[in-house]
Specification:
The protein is mainly α and 112 residues long. Helix content is 53%, strand content 0%. GO terms for molecular function: sodium:bicarbonate symporter activity; solute:inorganic anion antiporter activity.
Length: 112
């Protein structure tokens, strides 16, 4: 193989924001009106209800007696990691988690 020479990006001496006119903290209401935050509560509550119901349906399917789950520790660890990731994702403002009911069937098979 021929080794290609690639140019390397110069390293900066310190860590700083890319735009010098802005600091590390970006004000959340810089260009938004004040009423946008209370208005966002309505769809946020609907999304929370949807996720809660989807999670409950998935839990009912997973906890059926016919599945005969033997690895209880793995199930509880999964719930712990899931709750931590939901809190982290919500805090960072990333897309929300949705319980994948269909994919949970494969997860049940791994816990048998």
């Amino acid at each position: 193989m021929n080794a290609e020479k690639r140019s390397k990006r110069p390293k900066k001496a310190n860590l700083q924001p890319t735009w010098e006119g802005r600091g590390w903290f970006i004000p959340p209401f810089a260009e938004n009106e004040w009423w946008t935050a209370p208005l966002a509560i309505v769809p946020a509550l609907l999304a929370c209800i949807l996720i809660f119901m989807d999670q409950q349906i998935t839990t009912v399917i997973v906890n059926r007696k016919e599945n005969k789950l033997k690895k209880g520790c793995g199930y509880h660890l999964d719930l712990f990691v899931l709750s931590f990731s939901i809190l982290l994702v919500g805090f960072l403002g990333l897309p929300i988690y949705v319980a994948a009911t269909v994919l949970s069937i494969n997860h049940i098979n791994s816990l048998k």
